Amino acid sequence: MRFLLVIISFLFFACSSSQETVAEKTVTYNSVYASQDSGFETPQTKTITNQNEFKEIWTQAMSRFHDKPEIPAIDFEKNQVLLIALGVKNNGGYKLQMDKVVENKNSIVVNYFENKPGANCMTTQAIVFPFELIEIPKNSKKVEFVKTVKIVDCK
Fold first, then answer.
1. Do β-strands 142-152 and 107-117 pair in parallel, antiparallel, or remain unpaired?
2. pLDDT tens-digit map of 1-24
3. Residue 22 and residue 28: Cα distance in Å, rounded?
4. pLDDT tens-digit map of 90-137
5. How far is the CA of 126 from the CAs of 60, 90, 123, in angstroms?
């Protein structure tokens, strides 16, 4: 009987330890540009992997600016750029806030918040188009964007 318990215990622990745990790795990112104003009228996310794509996105992003900043230099041999745009919002209380970028076994996951003003918030009554461009190391994995809407309570 004792022998049988030893065998069953061994099998139980052998089976449970065979499950592989996949850890997430934090990906360092740099903000290339962020603003409450842009030419992105609809919400969108995009992975930009070359200079031509970046130039098109930059032109659209800056289309509402009178004094347009110069396009930043990006080394697309080593890096890629990610676009997150919230689209048109009806007041200045909306904000885009980066949370984290992580790499797992299958993908790069970009987590961000859409901060939305609560009922008690006083906001500017200006139409805004929040967006951000971030730079991450080049990777062949699929990029997934995960938005969390966070209502800001202004009591």
1. parallel
2. 555 444 555 445 555 444 445 689
3. 19
4. 999 999 999 999 999 999 999 999 999 999 999 999 999 999 999 999
5. 20, 7, 8
Q: What is the pLDDT of residues 42-95, one digit of tens each?
A: 999 999 999 999 999 999 999 999 999 999 999 999 999 999 999 999 999 999
Tokens encoding 140: 């062949």
Provide the token pair at 7. 């065998």
Q: Can you list the alpha helix ranges (DSSP code H) found in the chain?
A: 2-16, 51-61
pLDDT of residue 105: 96
Reported for 19-28, long-range contacts at CB under 8 A and 24+ positions apart, including other chains, are 22/104, 22/105, 24/102, 24/103, 24/104, 24/109, 25/102, 25/103, 25/104, 26/100, 26/101, 26/102, 26/103, 27/101, 27/102, 27/103, 27/108, 27/136, 27/137, 28/101, 28/136, 28/137
Question: What are the φ/ψ torsions at residue 5 (nearest 5 degrees)?
Answer: -65, -40
Can you give the residue ranges of every domain in the chain? 20-152
